Amino acid sequence: MTDSLSRKIAFTFYALGWSLAIPLLYRNRRLKEGFEQRILRVEPPKADLWIQAASVGESLLAWELLKHLHPPEPVRILITSNTSQGMNVLKKARRWAKRENIDVIVETAYFPFDQPKIMRHALTDIRPKVLLMLESELWPGLMAACKKQGVKMLVVNGRINQKSLKHYRIWPSLWRDLRPDRVLAISETDASRFSVLFGNDVVETMPNIKFDRVNEKSLTAGRVNPLTSMIGPEERLLVLGSVRQEEEKDIARLISDMMAKEPRLIIGLFPRHMHRRNHWRKILGDLNLPWLLRSEINGQVSSGTVVLWDTMGELTPAYELAQAAFVGGSLAPVGGQNFLEPLTCGLKPVIGPYWSNFFWVGREIIDQKLVFQVNNWQELSKVLLKKLSLPLQREQTKAAVIDYVRNRQGGTGQACKVIINFLQK
To answer: Where are the domains of the chain?
Structure first.
């Protein structure tokens, strides 16, 4: 079978799969919001630059780019996201751009389903000069439409893990045909993986934009913490942030152990995915510990309580009040979650042995004792108990974080130069 025929068959099945799936996806609660935009029943606005930002993290990166993108003449930008949480960030970014950056005109929309026919219509409606895909957003329907209509493609802050690369390599000729015009990868490892897919000539490295989001201004408290009404100043708060399903059994053991040894502790439990909330209700009930849903709290939380967080957007304020924190996704081999977030709050977090998604931060962050790594939940319990007994040094920690990231910044500026260059071609 020729490569051309193989690609045609693959795309035929890909399109058929989307056609069968879309009616079912309407029943998905998370996808139902913005469904009219996802199927292009609502026409998207025209734009010179289309930025795809999958969820919250990528949307924050898009906002960072807006802050530093100063084209020689005004540019129309459409930023899309797959999730409602990402859209909430993008709406704030749009309001900021309207107020602060006269060089860009920003619109937002939900990302269309990648059914090839839908994406061809999307490109026809939007008519972008450049498509910018943030981090790991490789959508074959969209990329094929860009190739057909001559839209330049750029991957920024690119990352790709070995598991994803293995899946992509099922059809290597497909990805060679769809390759972007430029890939800016966040590490040599990511660059080498992208090179396997697309070739060395379109791939280069860049500093991670997330380092640029850490600066003196971002570390300065400029607002009233919304959680001070529920966590008193005399209380000791332990935050278990972004806990993944794969580590729930270990975290349940940790909670039981911590509460037995520190019965007056308040534990803030933040599941990474909200659909695990009901499962955690059962776990906490089986542990026979006092616990509350965050959404049902009206006053101050009593000592010795586990708070199960079921509201969005309060993890950072919780880190700001905590005396110790664990960042999840790291006790099980799922890659880890963002441990820079507590650091920006002046809190040195503890993580498990699995943090491959954040190797780009550098092992030096552990060597310098800004982040503490443990091997299992028993070690985690010992380290957290010790940290709870020591005085916090938030300002010293913030200064150390600034010093750490200073020589690792500059990715936003590098990306913006490439974007403007592509827009002017």
So the answer is: 24-207+410-424, 237-406
